[in-house]
Design a protein that fits this description.
alpha/beta; 12 helices; globular
Length: 249
């Protein structure tokens, strides 16, 4: 099995990163792929969004204690390694290990790779050691971008980190694409998408996630968009995205 490990990132919060990790993962599982989600964000929003508030074991034990990943089944072909608040101390613990602290997630995932078609990692809204762990464990990055001027400004920082890691520590890392979320058809949004496509060309995915009240409601009820309402525009958009990603080689 040629597993794709995808780090889903943006160093700005509130852009739809966690929502996209959950709903893309569910869409891929609906299309018959075996999916593992990994929550590596100390805020644990992804874990909470599937009803895991205080798991007995989490990604913290994997990164800081070298324990076997605690995989929890969400649905058919759909599982998660959860996070919880103790992960907030992991930055300090991993940095104390110096170089080896950056490769903990890669080591933990190596035995699991053959079991899944896609492993999706929800990164923290920062570019610290937890995000770097995700990038060094991944084959691809998916950058979630909200069509606002401030969101575009931060893109270059992420791309510079990507180039640096690709040249030095993870030569297999590629950009899967830039995913535009929370699109609302305003003139400003349309102009920003035009600028993104002009500057980053085919790195910008064709799929766009439209702004949707249903997506917000699904998150509030701790459900993925397909469980909440599989007929809404949000479900349609994430299914189109999943198909686009499957088609990418």
């Amino acid at each position: 099995m040629n597993t794709k490990i995808i780090a889903i990132i943006n160093h700005k919060g509130g852009v739809g990163k966690t929502t996209s990790t959950l709903n893309l993962g569910k869409a891929l599982s609906i299309l018959g792929k075996k999916i593992l989600l990994i929550d590596i964000d100390p805020q644990a929003n992804l874990s909470q969004s599937v009803g895991l508030e205080n798991p007995d074991r989490s990604v913290y034990e994997v990164l800081c204690k070298g324990e076997k990943p605690p995989i929890q089944k969400i649905a058919d072909n759909f599982s998660i390694i959860p996070s919880e608040l103790s992960l907030s101390t992991a930055e300090i613990e991993l940095q104390a290990e110096q170089v080896t602290g950056y490769f903990k997630l890669r080591e933990a995932l190596e035995p699991l790779e053959k079991e899944y078609d896609y492993i999706l990692i929800d990164c923290p809204p920062s570019l610290g050691i937890l995000t770097v762990n995700a990038l060094l464990a991944s084959s691809h990055i998916l950058i979630v971008v909200e069509p606002q001027f401030l969101a575009i400004k931060g893109l270059q920082t992420i791309l510079e980190l990507f180039e640096k890691l690709k040249k030095t520590l993870n030569r297999n890392l590629d950009i899967l694409g830039l995913l535009i979320t929370q699109f609302n058809r305003t003139v400003v949004s349309k102009n920003i998408i035009e600028q993104l496509r002009e500057k980053y060309k085919d790195k910008v995915l064709e799929s766009i996630i439209r702004q949707s009240v249903k997506i917000t409601e699904a998150s509030a009820t701790k459900k993925d968009i397909f469980t909440y309402d599989d007929t809404c525009s949000g479900a349609e958009d994430y299914l189109i995205l999943a198909k686009e990603i499957i088609e990418k080689k």
